[in-house]
Amino acid sequence: MFPANEDVSIKGEKVIVLDDIERCKIPTAELFGFIDLLLHKYQCKIIIIGDETKYDKEEKNIYDQYKEKIIGQTLVVQKDSNAAFEAFTKELEGISKSAATFVKKNRECVLDTFNASSYSNLRSLKQSLHQFAFLYAHLKEGAEDYKREVLANYVAVSMELHNDQTIDIDKVTKGLRLGFLSKNDEFSHLQSKYQFVEGKHHVKLFAGYNGIYQALKDGVDITNDVNAEIDRRNNKPLYESYKRYYQMSNSDFTCSTKKVHDYLVSPIERLYDYIVTLY
Hints:
Layout: E1 15-19, H1 28-40, E2 45-49, H2 57-70, H3 81-92, H4 97-105, H5 107-116, H6 122-136, H7 144-162, H8 169-178, H9 186-201, H10 210-218, H11 223-234, H12 250-264, H13 268-278
Helix pairs in contact: 1-2, 3-4, 3-6, 4-6, 5-7, 5-9, 6-7, 7-10
């Protein structure tokens, strides 16, 4: 591998970092043979960075055998999603300050969705938040609940797109679009994963959000579609806001109540119109 005279710059007390070794095309046995050479013959210090869960069963067995003999210490990196969230939202200010503010306001929903995915790749979370911020910068005012749902879907769909250890997201979105998904298919697995998020934050994930899948996967611009839905929700009758009052957060309930109050303090004939609408 090195010149026969061994006059190589790599020899000596050097630190060599091998990143993403699970993606290496060199067979695992040969790779560890090279690492052993660097360690013992060339006295190098080796740092290996990788995701052990990405190996298939056969390669994992080989990896474990060599790991026991060659690797002296193993450190597990724990994700700090809270710290990462702070850093990501700070970056969002460069795209849209209003988007950064909105994402911060819905911090708990974002992190709950991220954790429910069982996929710890913070890079994917960052990408989903950046893409949402670009969309949010062009959205109309109002429909805050709907925007929160869009945000949660950006995170959930992005996680499932990048996690090759989970369900076939392409199959799920195709099935949702064509309407042939049953309760026994992969969509049910998605529903069970995110059931806690949907219940706690009153959002609907995946179903009805194929546009977000297309935006994340193929770069489709969905701004007009999202704004059209915002217009529809902004113009719905006030009484519809209370159809699921028992699921509303205190802030949402207060906001809806204020809208009704502002409406009712208008001329008396509007009070009559509103009562007739309710009954």
